Amino acid sequence: MSSNPPPLLRLEGVNKRFGGHVVLNDVSFSLAPGEIVGLVGPNGSGKTTTINVICGLYRADSGSIVFDGKPVHRVPMHELARIGINRTFQVPKTFRDMTVRENIEVAAYFGHADQRADVNALLRDIDLEAQADKLAGSLTVNQQKLLDLGRALATGPKLLLVDEIGAGLNPAELGGIAELLRKLAQRGIALIVVEHLMAFLGSITQRVIVLGAGRMLFEGSLDAASRHPEVVAAFFGEAA
Ligand SMILES: Nc1ncnc2c1ncn2[C@@H]1O[C@H](COP(=O)(O)OP(=O)(O)OP(=O)(O)O)[C@@H](O)[C@H]1O
């Protein structure tokens, strides 16, 4: 008898190509509720495409994606947001001419069919209570990223896909985001975090998946990944 809980997410043999270019090649992994996994790899290795196929922005050419016990690889993005998958973007997608509060309210309204988000609690979580009535377009880069997270959280996700949230942030801002992501995982939200900043990633998880040219090179601890020959070669070239 296995004591492992059933995975929240399971990818099995996922393939994706654009024209003749194979971008994901037999990607398979699982994620449990409340677990954080880092998705790392050199530029162009397929990290964002992986989260794009999980969130329904792109459709995988073959392979399966099972979420919460249901096959979801043909379910469109807006429907996936309703059943518990949401994501942030490398460039935050906020409504710049609406206030912070309105941005959260719109996401809460459209995002989740049967459970309304507590907007005030969410504003506290993302530390934007004091900015609630400011226009989103007036926020700093860090605040835009927090609002993008808040927009995704307003839909009540069980799985949150976080795409390069650390880029351009200072150490204090990175620390704040890391603390928030850890808190979300403690509440049971599973997170896939695409990131180039390894120290930041190491502060939220040890579990990483390394992609190289669309293929999974390694799955395990961040420390072991940094010593793995194929991973080192992918990042620094064959001679490394
Ligand atoms: N819509 C698309 N049409 C054609 N090619 C695409 C498309 N999206 C991604 N690609 C290609 O797929 C490959 C993987 O891109 P992807 O954005 O997933 O990489 P990444 O690992 O996230 O890179 P980065 O770290 O630079 O963000 C790249 O060669 C990219 O040019």
From TrEMBL:
SMART domains given in the database record: AAA (SM00382)
Question: Gene Ontology terms, cellular component aspect?
Answer: plasma membrane
- Name the Pfam families for this protein: ABC_tran
Transmembrane domains' residue ranges: none
KW Glycoprotein (keyword) present? no
Q: Which domain of life is it from?
A: Bacteria
InterPro entries referenced in this protein's UniProt entry, alphabetically: AAA+_ATPase (IPR003593), ABC_AA/LPS_Transport (IPR051120), ABC_transporter-like_ATP-bd (IPR003439), P-loop_NTPase (IPR027417)
Provide the alphabetized UniProt keywords: ATP-binding, Cell membrane, Membrane, Nucleotide-binding, Transport
Name the Gene Ontology molecular function terms of this record: ATP binding; ATP hydrolysis activity
Q: What is this protein called?
A: Amino acid/amide ABC transporter ATP-binding protein 1, HAAT family (TC 3.A.1.4.-)
Instruction: Report whether Ribosomal protein shows up as a keyword of the record.
Output: no
Question: What are the ABC transporter domain coordinates in residue numbering?
Answer: 9-238
